[in-house]
Specification:
Distance between the termini: 37 Å
Oligomer: single chain
Largest sheet: 4 strands, mixed
Order of helices and strands: EHHEHHEHEEEE
Number of strands: 7
C-alpha cells in the first residue's frame, strides 16, 4: 500500500496545471491525428469523462504531441527521460519547457491547495463525497470531469475519478530521503507514481497523501493523467 508519511518540500518555480484530468475528447483527438487506436472506455462512456486505459508511456506521448502542436519543445525522450528546451536530458524540472506530467511534489502541492491550502484530507474538503468520485458514490463508473466541488486552487477531480500518472519513478522510501527543494525522482526505477485514487477505490485511497505505483507500460480502466508546464 502507499507510503504517505509527511514530507515538506519547497518549489522555487511556478507551473501551469490542468484544471481537470485529460478527457476522452482531448485524447481521442490525439489518437485520430497520429492515427493510432483509441483507448477503450469499457462501455462507461467517453466525451468529457477522463480518459482511461492509458499507460504512463501513452501519457508522455500525448504530452510530446501537444507540445509539438503548440510549437513547444518536446519534454520526453523515447525512454521517458526529461528533456530541456534544447532536447538535452535533464533532471532539473525548471529547465523543461513543454507539456509534461506533474512531478509527485507538484501533484500533492496542487491537490492540497497550494498557498491557499486549508489543510483538507481530500482535494478541497474533509468530506470525500463533496470532491471525489470513489467506491461509495460513483455507481461503479467514471464521471464527467468538473462535476464535484473544486479545491482551493480551482482544480477538479484530484481526489477520485481516475488515478493520475506522475512524472516520477516510484520509491517507497523516497519521501524520507528526497531533496527538499524541487524534488523529482528520475532514477531508472521499474515503476511510476500514481496519485489521487479512482471511482473504484475506498476513501482511504483518494486522500491527497496517498501514493501508489505501477509499471509504466501498464494500463487499466481507472488510470488517467493530468498535464502541466513549467512557467518560463
Amino acid at each position: 500500500m502507499g507510503n504517505d508519511e509527511p514530507h515538506e518540500v519547497e518549489l522555487t518555480y511556478d507551473f501551469y496545471i490542468g484544471k481537470c484530468p485529460v478527457t476522452f475528447d482531448e485524447y481521442d483527438r490525439f489518437c485520430r491525428e497520429i492515427e493510432t487506436e483509441e483507448p477503450s472506455d469499457s462501455g462507461l462512456g467517453r466525451g468529457r469523462k477522463p480518459v482511461m486505459w492509458v499507460s504512463w508511456f501513452d501519457a508522455i506521448e500525448y504530452c510530446n504531441w501537444l507540445s509539438e502542436k503548440e510549437g513547444l519543445p518536446i519534454t520526453y525522450s523515447g525512454d521517458g527521460s526529461l528533456l530541456d528546451r534544447n532536447k538535452q536530458k535533464t533532471e532539473d524540472i525548471t529547465k523543461v519547457k513543454g507539456y509534461r506530467l506533474l512531478t509527485e511534489a507538484e501533484w500533492e502541492y496542487s491537490a492540497r491547495g497550494g498557498k491557499k491550502s486549508m489543510g483538507y484530507k481530500y482535494a478541497g474538503s474533509n468530506s470525500p463525497d463533496l470532491v471525489a468520485w470513489y467506491d461509495s458514490n460513483s455507481g461503479r463508473m467514471i464521471h464527467e470531469v468538473g462535476q464535484k466541488k473544486c479545491n482551493e486552487l480551482g482544480l477538479y477531480d484530484m481526489s477520485g475519478n481516475v488515478w493520475e500518472w506522475c512524472c516520477d519513478c516510484y520509491d517507497s522510501e523516497y519521501y524520507s530521503r528526497s531533496p527538499s527543494i524541487n524534488p523529482y525522482n528520475s532514477t531508472d526505477g521499474s515503476s511510476r507514481v500514481k496519485r489521487g485514487g479512482s471511482w473504484l477505490d475506498y476513501a482511504l485511497c483518494v486522500r491527497v497523501a496517498f501514493r501508489l505505483d505501477d509499471t509504466p507500460d501498464y494500463k487499466y480502466f481507472d488510470f488517467g493523467f493530468r498535464i502541466a508546464r513549467t512557467v518560463f
